[in-house]
Amino acid sequence: MSRIKIGLLVLSVIIIAIQFVQPARNQNRQVLDADITRLYMVPENVEAVLKTSCYDCHSNNTNYPWYVNVQPGGWWLASHIKKGKAELNFDEFGNYSKRRRQSKLKSIASSIEDGTMPLPSYTLIHKNAKLSKEDKTLLLNWVKKTRDSLLLKN
Ligand code: HEC
After folding, report:
1. Are the CB atoms for 43 and 146 separated by under 8 Å?
2. Whether the Cβ atoms of residue 141 and residue 80 lie closer than 8 Å to each other
3. What span, in angstroms and rounded, lies between the C-alpha atoms of 39 and 116?
4. Is the CB of 36 within 6 Å of ligand 1?
5. Cα 152 to ligand 1 centroid, rounded to whole Å
6. What's the pLDDT at 46?
7. d(Cα 37, Cα 105) in Å, to the nearest integer?
8. What are the φ and ψ backbone dihedral angles of 59, each rounded to 5 degrees?
9. Does the CA dihedral 48-58-134-64 come out positive or negative?
10. Ligand 1 mean position, distance from CA 107 (Å)
């Protein structure tokens, strides 16, 4: 066998072998008391946009796409979920201190304004998660309202 053939063979074995390493799924259907919708007014249309565009990485429930079964696609997503949830989890928002909630809401607004969220590498594949101009305005207005109400409560 030529070197190229051996190389290809080894590569195929590796590609097949990694298919067996599946990260644990992020799916936990129960609604926790700390869920953001239990704390603040989250209108249905706002929740719908958050669910489509943010919840895959910032909640306890990921809506898994087909490529999760094709490694390293699943690993790629799992790593985003892990990092994303560590920074911000809408299902556990109520466990944050008031100060942290304020600062998270502030960074939500700036991430939307700057277009850093949802991650561009993600919207490349998940076209429906891309925020339209209207979605952005909707979310930004909601963040502002929620932040103002938090300030009053303090
Ligand atoms: C594909 C996964 C993914 C999606 C979808 C996603 N994020 Fe993120 N988000 C991340 C990751 C990963 C981080 C951690 C920082 C980084 O790597 O950029 C993060 C960080 C953040 C942070 C920073 C938190 C902080 O305190 O600095 C905010 C805010 C945020 N995301 C908001 C959003 C919002 C709002 C949406 C939806 C409009 C969204 N994200 C969609 C993966 C995602």
Report:
1. no
2. no
3. 26
4. no
5. 27
6. 98
7. 14
8. -155, 180
9. negative
10. 9
- Cβ count within 10 A of residue 27: 10
Q: Find tokens 């594949």 and name the residue.
A: 125
71, two tokens:
């490694």
pLDDT value of residue 152: 66
**The tokens of 34 are what?**
């700390």
For residue 39 the two structure tokens come to 């704390």
Instruction: Please tell me the total number of residues recorded for the chain in this structure.
Output: 154
Closest Cα to residue 81, out of 71, 69, 94, 68?
A: 68
Ligand 1 close to Cβ of residue 108 (< 6 A)? yes
Structure tokens at 144: 């502002």
Predicted confidence pLDDT, tens digits, the chain (154 residues): 899 999 999 999 999 999 999 999 999 888 889 999 999 999 999 999 999 999 999 999 999 999 999 999 999 999 999 999 999 999 999 999 999 999 999 999 999 999 999 999 999 999 999 999 999 999 999 999 999 887 766 5
Is there a contact between 94 and 150 (Cβ–Cβ < 8 Å)?
no
Distance 83 CA to ligand 1 centre (A): 8
